[in-house]
Amino acid sequence: MKLSTKKILISACLLGEPVRYDGKSISIKDKTICYFQQQGYLVPVCPEVMGGLPIPREPAEIIKGVGDFPDRKVITQGGFDVTEAFQRGAERTLEIALQNNVIAALLKSNSPSCGNLQIYDGSFSGRLIEGFGITVRVLKEAGIPVFNELQVSLLCDFIEQQG
Ligand code: SF4
């Protein structure tokens, strides 16, 4: 694996940090991620906590606005608008990514911040739809590719292609 001085941004919850809305973590046992961690390649971030939200916190989902994509909001299950905190966390995440010269991001699937392929549909019914989280949007706009924890082999392919 040729990473040299490049780093990989990673959702902190995937490394066992208890930063999720419910105060839990998702420690995944992936040999490649363990290797990256041992080599010091990983830069952990939790956009929601960096945006100022507490642990634990109410679950939140993206509600699509009518019309353009930026009109969408992030609303908690109790109806509180947390869009600003999510956006602040996304921008802070991008700053950290740029400061660390990251080559890609490996983020938790389905999250309203970190999901790169699907997100919950805003009805808090557990239904997933195509889309991506607030932080993923900011990273993609900056040209940083985002993979999820089920796409580690794709991430490795990408790194190999970078030479
Ligand atoms: Fe994990 Fe991202 Fe949610 Fe933080 S915002 S708990 S890193 S999925």
SSE layout and pairing:
Elements: E1 7-11, H1 31-38, E2 42-45, H2 47-50, E3 60-63, E4 73-76, H3 83-99, E5 102-107, E6 118-120, E7 128-130, H4 134-141, E8 146-148, H5 152-162
Parallel strand pairs: 1-2, 1-5, 5-8
Antiparallel strand pairs: 3-4, 6-7
The structure holds iron/sulfur cluster (SF4).
The site of iron/sulfur cluster (SF4) has 12 residues, from helix 2.
Descriptive account of the structure:
By secondary structure, this protein is an alpha/beta fold. The chain has one domain (7-162). It is built from 5 helices and 8 strands; from the N terminus they run βαβαββαβββαβα. The chain has helices spanning 31-38, 47-50, 83-99, 134-141, 152-162; strands spanning 7-11, 42-45, 60-63, 73-76, 102-107, 118-120, 128-130, 146-148. The strands form 3 sheets. It has a 4-stranded parallel β-sheet, sandwiched between helices. A two-stranded antiparallel ribbon has the order 3-4. Strand 6 and strand 7 (128-130) form a beta hairpin. Helix 3 crosses helix 4 (134-141). It is globular and about 45 Å long. The mean pLDDT is 92. The structure holds iron/sulfur cluster. The site of iron/sulfur cluster has 12 residues, from helix 2. InterPro entries: 2-thiour_desulf. This is DUF523 domain-containing protein. It comes from Zooshikella ganghwensis.
